[in-house]
Amino acid sequence: MQKRLLSILVFLACGIYTQAQEFNCKVTIRHDKITGVDAQVFTGMQNAITDLVNAHKWTNDEFAVPEKIDCSIYINLTGNNVNGDIDGYSATLSIQATRPVYNSGYTTKLIDYVDKDVAFHFAQNGTIHFDDNNVSGTDPLSSNLSAIVAYYAYLILALDYDSFAPDGGTAFLKKAQNIVNNAPDGKGISGWKAVESTHNRYWITDELLNTRFADVRSFWYTMHREGLDSMAAKPNESRTRILTNIKKLYNVSRENPSSILIQFIFNAKGDEFVHLLSGAPKQERAQYITMLTSLDVPNAAKYNMLR
Length: 307
Prior knowledge:
307 residues, alpha+beta, 11 helices, globular, disordered N terminus
């Protein structure tokens, strides 16, 4: 893969290539809404999730230390005693991940998403394990936490690899889809099924793997590898390449108006598009603003200010 080849050459040349796992993840647990539970439970929960993401081997590739993917997981516990389980919790999970842009000190977001369908069991002194071949485990509520975390780990890897090579993340999308297909199932567990919502974990991976949305992944590669990574050497050409390819997203959105994928992309990239648009000649912005305000309604006012 192009990413691995470039990185190995660079780090071998610098004499600093060492083996490392794929993620550098910071996990935060907010538990102010939970009472009557020893605070050490939440410290253990945070450490267990951190260990799962950072210590588990998610790929067959070797990552140099500077190549590890920076990400953060913020879990806001909203309730406990789920289904009468004193160690059962409901929560929202916010996840972010970034990727460095070549020849710059700039990092670009790969994902910025809030998952509101989170419920799990975690007892004091508990640990978290994940097995691709036994996603649902022996207890659905206990296994749901590891399944959700693993799902997003594979999704981040897919988006990262897609940004370095066309469709480079397909293998990881299929691993994420395997989790969806074999996810824990039980009372209080949601987010895995197509019938539950049009905006959940099922649909994110389904659309990324669906040929109807192929232009989204094509755009993703263009934006990162052919656009942002070339910005330092050819800023105007690279910016124009990204902006002109917005048409791909616009066409996909028109054909799939209820898609979660477009919204998912703009959650991470909205502010970046505003910045890119601000650098374009004013007389050229109108054509892009029309598409962007349609695609990214929450940021429409920001785009319109650049007319």
